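FORM 7B: Structural annotation worksheet

SECTION A. Query
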Amino acid sequence: PCRSGDPATCLVVPASACAQAMEPRSSPGVVQGVYRGLRAAQAQAAGKQLYTTSGVVDDTRFRPFVKRTTVRGIRLLSTESVTNKEILSIVVIVEEILPRDVADRKQQQQVVEKLSRHRAGIPIWVRAGDTRAVDSFSICDCIFVGSDKIESEVVEHVLHALTNVGLAMVWDKDWGLHRSSNIYGFVVEAIQRGLFTPEPSLTEWSPRRDPDTDRILIQEFAYAAIVTYWNLPRNR
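SECTION B. Predicted structure
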């Protein structure tokens, strides 16, 4: 553009010179390499953040849940009567279920990313109450710290969040919460062979059946199969 105000005194620059000036000083291969390096560094930083536990944070936006802890992408939402010690003991179990040192960290990180992105949440109670305040989270069930089988209680509901929000979102064909998924086929086969006996209300099929019933059926089967493989007692 002419900055003197007088077009007659403006210098006309050939188009070829402009094109030359806009050419990158480095070869495309170098630029792409730098770009890939930046992306890899960003992904690595994001991965480290996903595996960082937040600690117990006071957060009154979702009363009666006034404490929040994030571990492996899962938000633990606790009421005032739940102690920090109880919350941190649950954190340890989550970290053991999703440890850092796994054979395929990349696949595990995909699951943790889905848990974080879709706001997987687990309310933690001493006594049950209203959960409408946390409707913005993906919630499958709650943890009751007053249970006499607290370890099994925690494992069950962490696995519900893991299968419903993590595995189902990453591998829909295998873990999807619908009748076309492979796991639903395994559920049907296990019931027919007498290997899995769910609550009667979950197997009463009808054309107008609530799709959420299928979700619960899949999550309960997945929980039973996983803890059996781990040789852990079921929370029943």
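SECTION C. Observations
The radius of gyration is 26 Å. Strands lie at 57-62, 65-71, 74-79, 120-125, 138-139, 143-144.

SECTION D. Sign-off
Analyst initials: ____
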